[in-house]
Amino acid sequence: MPGWINPKLGIMYSAPNIPGWDRIPLVKILHERFGVPVKLGNDANMAALGEWRYGAGQGHNNLVYLTISTGIGGGVISGGRL
Asked: What is the pTM (predicted TM-score) of this model?
């Protein structure tokens, strides 16, 4: 998710590009709806993790991922860790 989140509690506090989505217990909602485990993370960090694991970053221990869309963000993989 973009914006302020609490991954441990599974709550999205606010998203600058999704008006009205404030203090949403997103993990709970998605888990109840789909019955699968759900984790919440920052969109740029999760994109970096996905690129490292499944995309052009495969086989590398270090990666910098930049995203420029509704905002500017990025994620870093260093030594094989997000």
From this structure: 0.79
Residue 48 burial (CB < 10 Å; 0-12/13-18/19+)?
buried
- Measuring CA to CA, how many Å separate 35 from each of 1, 26, 32? 20, 13, 5
Is 44 in contact with 73 (CB distance < 8 Å)? yes
For 43, the 3-state DSSP assignment is helix
The C-alpha atoms of residue 57 and residue 3 are separated, in whole angstroms, by 25
Sign, Cα dihedral of 15, 36, 6, 47: negative
Task: Give residue 13's identity as a one-letter amino acid code.
Answer: Y
57-74 pLDDT, tens digit each: 999 999 999 999 877 899
